[in-house]
Amino acid sequence: MQFRPATTDDTPTIETFLRRYTDTSMFLLSNLRAFGPCGGEAPHATRVWLLEDADRLQGVVGLSTAGSLLVQLPNGAPEGSLRTLLAGETVKAIFGETAQVGRARAALGLDAARVQLDDDEPLYSLDLDHLFVPSGATRLRPAGEGDRTRLIAWREEYLVETVRYSPEDAIEAAPEEIDGMLARGTLMLLEQPDGTPCAMTSFNALLPETVQIGNVFTPDDFRGRGYARRAVALHLERARAEGVQRAILFASGAAASRAYEAIGFDRIGRFALLIFGQAQDIGGTA
Prior knowledge:
GO terms for molecular function: acyltransferase activity, transferring groups other than amino-acyl groups. It holds the Pfam family Acetyltransf_1. InterPro entries: Acyl_CoA_acyltransferase (IPR016181), Bact_Acetyltransf (IPR050832), GNAT_dom (IPR000182). Keywords: Acyltransferase, Transferase. By secondary structure, the protein is an alpha+beta fold. The chain has 8 helices and 12 strands. It has a 12-stranded mixed beta sheet, sandwiched between helices. Helix 5 packs across helix 6.
């Protein structure tokens, strides 16, 4: 087996393969649909390589412009092949099914690298026919440019609390991240009857029939009232009305797990989010 760069002509084959593992391939599938397999300037544009055995596709890896390595190698890869493939590249993060992320990290010689975030999170799915929407007077609306200042402040809190950013790094990163979410058009705000925003949610990967929930946040003053679960449920209710059939997410803690289980999500596996303390330059095979 060996890796080769993907071409635009490979797109249907890549998508067919990844859809066998949709639940742990949402980032790869969404980026492929948005940007193709050959990369680009956008942070989420992704260069894709195919692991083939006698022209049969056995695995897919992608490296985004922002430095996120996305892995779908269900049967692993030949020893040394991943490190050889990525020699000279820079990797900031590795995302994927938990065991695969661990193997990729070891294969790249990064077991000792300092990490900012190393989360092995429960992975959940939901058939939207089984969605439960909690009752309440709060309502959901799309976020807009007028919300930008508030959203940036919330994002700073989220990055420090959930992604382990330093306050200084969070202040630097939050504006660009919020601008990207606003541009993608899936960022939603839950607001109280008087119009006060009290929670946010978005889709961080999107296919016509499946969405992946991400960036869910409730400020301290509004926690413990069920706002996050209602925000997610109302967002999925809208998506269902537009033809979406399934939702995927991974939960950052016990409270998040309880919230998602309360609206119908079932645990189906594990998903790892590994972010290094600084971008890692990949050397050749040791």
